[in-house]
Amino acid sequence: MTLSKLVSGAALASLIAVAAHAHSGATGVVKERMDGMGVMKDSMKVLAPMMQGKTAYDAAAVRREAKKIGTHAGDVLTALFPKGSNGHPSEAKAEIWTDWEGFVDLAERLQTYSDGLASAAENGLMMSKAQGTGMMSNSTMMGSSHMGSGSMMGGGMVAGGAMMGGSPGAEALSQMPADGVFMMLSQTCSACHTRFREE
Length: 199
Prior knowledge:
Layout: H1 3-7, H2 10-17, H3 28-51, H4 59-70, H5 74-79, H6 95-98, H7 100-120, H8 138-142, E1 163-164, E2 167-168, H9 170-175, H10 178-196
């Protein structure tokens, strides 16, 4: 399955839908995290068409949008989910607090992949690389074509041979094509939404 079909599937729809819900009544930390999700959604709307080859690839824009996502990931993200901050208008499932370790892991992966995308921005798209240059093919990079399953987490992703807890490390990510790192980023978002966000 091609990157274009994958990115235009469930993961992107989930990302775009995250801020589509009205923020009516949201205050305090709930509003803060909804606003942060809105920033990430806007960045994904800029990045996805570039990764699909629908708009011109712009390394500076990729780096800028990846950094925006990174500012709302990791510890910054988890700090916006204190216990008891679910319930309307929040879309957070109680599972965030019953599986805090899983939530933290996904928030950290989001940080890793957004940082990785920023550092891989100059690498361009895999689709534009000449075939047989040693870059990973779609089939080896994707591991699984099922979006939102979290199958990328700990999957057979290899880049430069460096793995870190089942995920490529910063050095490996920096050597990958930008669309490969973007796929990992979008699947992380999708996995988090599937497990931890009310539809």
